[in-house]
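Notes from the 1:1 (GR / supervisor)

We went over the backlog. Supervisor wanted to see one worked example end to end before approving the batch request, so GR pasted a single chain during the call. The sequence is below; no edits were made to it. Supervisor asked that the structure be written out right there so they could see what the output format looks like.
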Amino acid sequence: MKIHNSSFERVKELKYLGKNLTYKNYIEGEIRSRLKSGNACYNSVQNFMSPSFLSKNTKIKMYRTIILPVVFYGCEICLLTLRGECRLRVFGNKVLRRLFGPKWFEVRGEWRQLHREELNDLYSSPNIIRVVKSRRMKWAGHVARKG
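Structure output shown during the call:
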């Protein structure tokens, strides 16, 4: 494509400001990239979040301030599919399970993973999908006010 004296080539994919933009608006690759970055971020602070080293409140604050912003970067312009929502929900639950650790199951006398309802009770903040949708609505309001 030529505009004035400048020519531009057509590309299938472009990384701009940390976001993967595609000509088909393919969002699954972007979600995959955000979750990969979120996992890398969690792995970098994992040593600080050992079960006995920090309180649960401190772990939750670290999760909200360090890990979630990496995952949420640019989520305001993403249209989530059901598959994307599921991937985000699985990521959030996986990290929360790591933060809170296993639970002792007295009936069987063994450790088990926390169920989703137990995670919701312990975390008591909106789940990851609600946060993404609310951020998108705030962005839409901002754009509408801009005129």
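Supervisor's comment: The chain has a mean pLDDT of 83.
Batch request approved.
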